[in-house]
Each structure stands twice: as structure tokens, then as C-alpha cells.
Write a structure and sequence with these properties.
The protein is an all-alpha fold. It is built from four helices and no strands. It is globular, with a radius of gyration of 13 Å.
Length: 80
């Protein structure tokens, strides 16, 4: 039986942030800290903890919208 790894919202967002080059990565982390109002010392764990505090519908929308924004950032700043 093949086990499929399912990414969490925190993992998805953390991977997108980590794929950005500096200084854009640092800017994205600072921006996300402003949105979440929590320190993001362990990016994936802290994002997951924040997401767990949200209502499921809000969580899904936050992950989707933030993911879209990070995708655009990667498009514009990823190959700098």
C-alpha cells in the first residue's frame, strides 16, 4: 500500500515563503507575522498553530488567498 503525504496549510505556505530569495523571504515572513499577530520562529509549526485557531472556512480561505499572494510574489521576485 502506498502512503501519500498530505501537506498541511502551514507546510504549503512555509514552502512557498522559503522558496522566495532574500530579502523577499524576510519581507514575506514579516508581513505574515503582521497578519497572524504571532511570532513566526518555526515557520511551519507556527503557521499551523495559527491556522488551527481559525474556523475551518476562514482557514481554507486564508491558506488559499495567502498562497495566491505568495505565488505572485514568487512569479515577480523568484528569479531575481
Amino acid at each position: 500500500m502506498v502512503t501519500q503525504k498530505i501537506e498541511t496549510g502551514g507546510e504549503v505556505l512555509a514552502n512557498r515563503i522559503l522558496s522566495l530569495p532574500d530579502p523577499y523571504r524576510k519581507n514575506a515572513i514579516e508581513w505574515l507575522q503582521q497578519c497572524t499577530q504571532i511570532p513566526l520562529e518555526d515557520l511551519e509549526r507556527d503557521i499551523d498553530r495559527f491556522l488551527a485557531s481559525l474556523h475551518p472556512a476562514v482557514r481554507a480561505k486564508f491558506v488559499f488567498q495567502t498562497g495566491k499572494l505568495l505565488d505572485k510574489a514568487m512569479h515577480y521576485f523568484g528569479n531575481v
